[in-house]
Design brief:
The complex is a heterodimer of chains A (about 350) and B (about 375). Chain A is α+β, with helices and mostly antiparallel strands and about 350 residues long. Chain A is built from 9 helices and 17 strands. In chain A, helix 1 packs across helix 4 and helix 4 crosses helix 8. Chain A is globular. Helix content of chain B is about 25%, strand content about 25%. The longest helix of chain B is centred in the last third of the chain and has 17 residues.
Chain lengths: ~350, ~375
């Protein structure tokens, strides 16, 4: 079995903020190329890979998707030799002071997010968490050079290098959701050794952290019969240990609630049990906060299911994940696809 | 034999003044990347000893772990001049194992809790990586997000390996690795690795008009403990302290003038008039100012106020030791990434070296 750790580290080291995913997209395309029949890009930049099924025409198709975009920052202003910033996606401003970043100006520029001392801030936030609008990026450049190289609207990526921790654990930024890209890749690799009846669309979506626009448009274009979304969920750990969290190394979660089609949920649950792949059920009362929201309501509606990989410290530059959980997710997905027969759609119903 | 070796080195180096070039920057990189939280300075001590041995007449490691280096000069009535720089840095101490891979910790030295969240760290002498995480923002309530996350609620997480060598009692530091940033240098713990690097350069190019008593001190960040006993042992005539002091030279949020900048990057070495622990000796301030002006070296006065250096302990040791501090200005000290201007470092070394060369037995009269 391929060790995907180097691929994951490469993925999280590449920029690809929401709406600007092409650097990471190129890496994914490169990895997927030998695993699919054809690759294409959607008008918004989502990556579509296609594997033809063995069944005779007309065949059903399954879409498996994970978003490839990452959260980050954007330049909002220049003042003297410092930059003002805003967020791309849901950034927790409390983690920002002291973070290493790369400013994607006319060239890539390293920088540090810094928190000014209280007396340079409004009185009401003294001794408190400093909101993002009062933080700066220091690039060490002179004001003149900075103005030549950086403009308002330039993207800023986190630059913390990936860490390999003990127990096959990886820590770093953008593991949400590059880990799921690795799970899809693992699935594709397994499928090359397997026969599958259905057509498979594998999709790395854009803009999940901002608009869900990638998933909605790709699903419309590809019109799959069913859709499987892979994303991350809250890993149990310091500061987060209630029922909404799931242990690292404890396997994936299967989403349950109005965002998920019950037949697909049952199929995955039964299969996980049969294969002895550990899983937990993750319940969403309204929606899952993932691409599944958009996929479910695309065109006439698409039966959708959600698999999630537990990840500690979500939306920080020290997100943490266990490689084993990624592999399990990829394997379950491949086994599911390999078992899809011509009559599966007849069983997919709400009652 | 030792003196002979030293004479040889001195004749070789008489013409070469100390300087900051590629080798010194590489040494700073090594010093910055090493982990030496107050009370656990072994990793720094090792580098310092290796660097100073060949140039020193005498090296001792005292009871607290200070490295005390003597470089004797030539001629009669040589003043005994102590120059101190602290080896320790602020950091963390693991206090309790909560679960597999999860540890409570305390800060050692002053670190703002707001700097800790979402940062990688290195634990123990083998520099095992870990992280300080936080509850995902998605799971927080509004009132929770407005509160500063206390250090006691944070954990160091080193992953899920069962055989890890990490244990309670280990120290940890921010994991930041040294890097160049334009005309600046960035890394952790420039407070006071930049002073240590400067002092090593002075030891290897020691002026001969004085006895240079170089003290690489321990536990500065938690109460100037090393300097206190080092000054007692050396019993010097006067003392210089080399440190790194904050440059708060950022714009204020509303465009008002920033009048509390402490020091400014790029304005040269910062001379202390008075801080929270020391009133600098006016004769030594005068010596530094006159030297700077005559040699054309830029300098600035650190804004008088709080804070302190090893001078606070040295000045009041024994019957009193006239002292002054000179710092390289540094932004974002005691955070994961400190930032100094290379030119300020060069000028600091130039000023201190030139001032030391001017010291005579009459300097304090």
């Amino acid at each position: 079995m391929t060790d995907f750790t180097p691929f994951l580290k490469e993925l999280i080291s590449a920029p690809g903020l929401s709406g600007h995913e092409s650097p990471v997209c190129d890496l994914i395309a490169n990895q997927w190329k030998p695993l699919v029949e054809k690759l294409s890009l959607s008008p918004l930049g989502s990556l579509h890979g296609f594997r033809r099924g063995e069944a005779p025409d007309p065949r059903s198709s399954v879409l498996i998707s994970a978003h490839m975009d990452a959260i980050g920052l954007m330049v909002k202003g220049l003042e003297e030799e410092f930059l003002r910033l805003t967020s791309v996606g849901g950034v927790d401003a409390r983690v920002l002071p002291g973070q290493l970043v790369t400013v994607h100006g006319r060239q890539d520029i390293p920088g540090v997010v810094v928190m000014p001392p209280d007396w340079l801030l409004p009185t009401e936030i003294h001794n408190g968490n400093v909101p993002i609008e009062y933080l700066w990026i220091d690039t060490g450049l002179t004001a003149q050079r900075l103005a030549r190289l950086v403009r308002v609207g330039d993207l800023v990526s986190f630059a913390q290098p990936p860490l390999e921790l003990s127990g096959e654990v990886i820590a770093g930024h953008s593991l949400d959701n590059r880990v799921s890209i690795v799970a899809l890749t693992h699935c594709l690799q397994e499928l090359t050794q397997r026969v599958h009846q259905w057509d498979v669309w594998v999709v790395a979506t854009v803009q999940e952290e901002e608009t869900l626009g990638g998933a909605a448009t790709s699903a419309f274009q590809l019109r799959p019969d069913v859709a499987v979304v892979v994303d991350v969920t809250y890993g149990r750990g310091p500061g987060a240990d209630d029922h909404r969290t799931f242990p690292l190394g404890g396997g994936l979660t299967l989403g349950w609630g109005p965002n998920v089609h019950p037949t697909l949920f049952k199929a995955f649950k039964t299969l996980a049990e049969e294969l002895e792949i550990p899983y937990s059920v993750e319940v969403f009362a309204h929606h899952s906060g993932t691409d599944a929201i958009a996929l479910q309501v695309t065109a006439e509606g698409i039966p959708t299911v959600l698999l999630s990989i537990p990840l500690r410290y979500m939306h920080t530059p020290v997100e943490m994940v266990m490689m084993k959980d990624i592999q399990r997710t990829g394997r379950l997905l491949a086994e599911f696809i390999a078992r899809l027969g011509p009559d599966f759609m007849n069983k997919v119903n709400m009652d | 034999m030792r003196n002979k070796q030293r004479d040889k080195i001195m004749t070789q180096e008489k013409s070469s003044a100390p300087r900051i070039a590629a080798a010194q920057i590489r040494l700073l990189e090594r010093l910055s990347n090493a982990c030496a939280v107050s009370g656990d300075e072994g990793a720094l001590r090792q580098v310092v000893l290796e660097q100073v041995r060949s140039a020193a007449d005498d090296v001792i490691v005292d009871a607290l772990g200070n490295v005390l280096v003597t470089c004797r000069g030539q001629g009669k009535d040589r003043p005994r001049v102590m120059v101190a720089a602290h080896m320790d840095e602020v950091g963390f101490l693991l206090t309790h194992k909560e679960n597999e891979g999860i540890f409570h910790f305390d800060t050692v030295g002053r670190i703002d809790a707001r700097q800790l969240v979402g940062k990688p760290v290195l634990v123990g002498s083998e520099q095992i990586p870990g992280v300080i995480g936080v509850k995902p923002v998605h799971l927080t309530e509004i009132e929770e997000r407005s509160k500063v996350i206390s250090i006691k609620s944070l954990r160091i997480d080193i992953g899920l390996g069962k055989d890890s060598k990490v244990k309670v009692g280990d120290r940890a530091t921010f994991a930041t690795r040294f890097f160049r940033l334009g005309r600046n240098l960035c890394g952790k713990a420039f407070d006071d690795r930049i002073g240590v690097a400067t002092l090593i350069e002075l030891v290897t190019h020691a002026p001969t008009n004085i006895d240079l008593l170089a003290a690489f001190t321990v536990q500065e960040e938690i109460g100037l403990r090393g300097a206190r006993v080092a000054a007692y042992t050396f019993d010097p005539d006067l003392a210089f302290v080399l440190d790194c002091t904050p440059a708060f030279d950022l714009p204020s949020w509303d465009g008002e003038e920033n009048t509390r900048y402490n020091t400014r990057l790029g304005a040269g070495p910062a001379i202390y008039i008075a801080d929270g622990g020391t009133i600098s000796d006016p004769r030594l301030i005068q010596l530094l100012v006159r030297t700077a002006e005559e040699e054309g070296i830029p300098y600035q006065f650190r804004q008088p106020g709080g804070g302190g250096t090893d001078a606070g302990a040295i000045q009041r040791q024994r019957a009193g030791i006239p002292s002054v501090s000179i710092s390289v200005p540094g932004r974002y000290l005691h955070t994961p990434v400190s930032l100094v201007r290379l030119e300020d470092w060069k000028q600091t070394l130039n000023l201190v070296y030139a001032a030391l060369r001017r010291i005579t037995s009459k300097t304090l009269t």
